[in-house]
What we know:
By secondary structure, this protein is α/β, with parallel strands linked by helices. It has a domain at 2-150 and 212-247 and 256-272: Nitrilase/N-carbamoyl-D-aminoacid amidohydrolase (4-Layer Sandwich). The chain contains 7 helices and 14 strands. The chain has a 6-stranded mixed beta sheet. β8 (184-188), α5 (193-207) and β9 (210-214) form a beta-alpha-beta unit. α1 runs parallel beside α3 (83-92). The longest helix has 17 residues, at 15-31.
Amino acid sequence: MKVAVIQxxxxxxxLQKTIDLGVxxxxxxxxxxxxxxxxxxAWFPGYPEYVWRLKPGGEMSLTDDLFKISxxxxxxxxxxxxxxxxxxxxxxxxxxxxGHQEIDGEVSGSTLYCSIIIINNDGTILNNxxxxxxxxxxxxVWGPGDGSGLNVVDTAVGRIGALACWENYMPLARxxxxxQNIDIYIAPTWDEGEPWLSTMKHISREGGCWVISSATxxxxxxxxxxxxxxDHLYPNKDEWINCGxxxxxxxxxxLHAGPLHKEKGVLYSDIDISLSKTSxxxxxxxxxxxxxxxxxxxxxxxxxxxxx
Length: 308
C-alpha cells in the first residue's frame, strides 16, 4: 500500500484556501497511487508557531491579534468545515489523517483544540482526537482535550491510531493505542530533528507497528504579508521555521523512508501492513509482555462537558 506524508506548507491562517490546497494534495497523492494521506499537526489552517516567539510580559498582547485570526479560521466540525476533505477522500478512495485546529462549536464557541481527524475512504469521520495536553506556550491558544478520542479505528487500510506531537512522549497515552491492536501509528507534529526522530523509532519498536510522522516544512516567506507583527516575529524571510522531517519507520524500529528535510512536498512510500502483527511475536507491550498481574492501566474515554 502506498502512503503519502504531506509536509507542504498550508495557506497559513486561511482555512478556506488551506482546505482547497488540501483537496488538491489529496487528488495528487491519489493520482500517485496513494491509499493513505497524512497531514501534519494543525495543518488546517496552520500551527500557531508565533506563541513560541513572544517575550513574556509586554509582548503577550500580540497574541490577541494573531489569536483572533487563528480562531476565525479554525475548523468547526459542527458546521461541516471538513466536508470538502471528506468528499475528496471519498472521491479518491483514500484514507485521510489530518491535524487541524478545532474550535468548540457546541458549548463555548471559543476554545480551540489541537485535533487529529481520521476520515475513511468513504468520507466518514471515524475519530477526532483532541490533544490531551498542549505543550508550554501552546496553552495560550489551545485547551486540553479529553480521553474520548484515544481510539484505534478500523479503516480501509488497516487499524489506525494517532497522537499529536509531545503527546507521544506520554507513555500511558502511547500504551492506550498499543492496547487496541494497532497497525499504523500516526504522529502529526511540529517537532523535528534527531530527538524527535529517535522517539518515532522507539515507538515503532515499542508498539510493534508502522509509525508515520511529519511536521510542516515552512519558511518565513510562506507566511502571508498581511499577517500581524510578521516583520517583528519573523525578520529573516529566508528562515526555515520548520524543516519538516517527514519519516516512516517499520515495525520494530527499522527506518523505512525519509526523513524529508527542508523540502516542501510529499514523502511517498509503499508499506506492508501485515508486518505490524508479525513483529510483535518478539515483543508485545500489551500482550505477552504486559504482566497484567503487576500493572494495570485505567482509561476514562468519556466525553467531558462543562454542563449537564
